[in-house]
Design goal:
Blueprint (H helix, E strand, L loop, with lengths): L11 E8 L3 H12 L4 E7 L2 E5 L2 E2 L4 E8 L2 E8 L17 E9 L2 H10 L3 E7 L5 E6 L7 E6 L2 H14 L8 E3 L4
Parallel strand pairs: 1-6, 2-11, 7-10
Antiparallel strand pairs: 1-7, 2-5, 3-4, 3-8, 5-6, 8-9, 9-10
Length: 181
């Protein structure tokens, strides 16, 4: 079985994601209660060419990534009330567990496999590294969505560097900003 540099298998679950009311408080709680860190924060993320339910999306979110062992944890805080996969129809946040992230080296085939099961992509975008992401409604088959993450060399390098920052982390510099050129 091939694995990424951070230890998770190709075409398997690499991430668990949660929607939080406040990103700073969420990161602090996960660090205080579970010892997870450091956190890597990407501000005002929307992705390139984002689509929600097939239409252009303008929602923005701050997202934070950290590792618990080899599993990446993502915390998400939507900054506005725009329609998105993070809000209900009444615009309230869908707090708590949100999705399992699958790092796939064959995005097109994985997307086709999920769609053949009747799962529809509710959100699609291109991330700054150029890889694609798509969030699928699992229609109750799982307790959350599946987010397909196109795994390329840039993604592996970035996530692996986050993983190694967590190994023997001493609590210094608990929040680190991700700068996108």
């Amino acid at each position: 079985m091939k694995t990424f540099g951070f230890g998770q298998p190709h075409d398997g679950v690499i991430q668990q994601a949660y929607v939080v009311r406040d990103l700073a408080e969420g990161m602090q709680e996960w660090t205080d209660l579970l010892g997870i860190g450091p956190w890597f924060v990407l501000r005002r993320f929307a992705g390139l060419n984002p689509l929600f339910r097939g239409k252009p999306a303008i929602a923005r979110a701050d997202v934070a990534f950290a590792f618990a062992g080899h599993m990446q944890i993502e915390l998400i805080h939507q900054l506005d009330e725009e329609p998105s996969i993070y809000r209900r129809d009444d615009k309230s946040l869908k707090l708590g567990f949100h999705h399992y992230g699958m790092g796939t080296t064959n995005f097109t085939a994985e997307a086709a496999r999920l769609e053949a099961r009747g799962f529809e992509p509710l959100f699609t975008a291109v991330v700054p590294s150029g890889g694609r992401v798509a969030s699928y409604d699992t229609k109750g088959a799982l307790p959350g969505m599946i987010e397909l993450i196109e795994a390329d060399a840039e993604m592996d390098v970035m996530f692996t560097s986050m993983y190694y920052a967590s190994v023997d982390w001493d609590g210094a510099e608990p929040v680190r900003e991700i700068k996108i050129a």
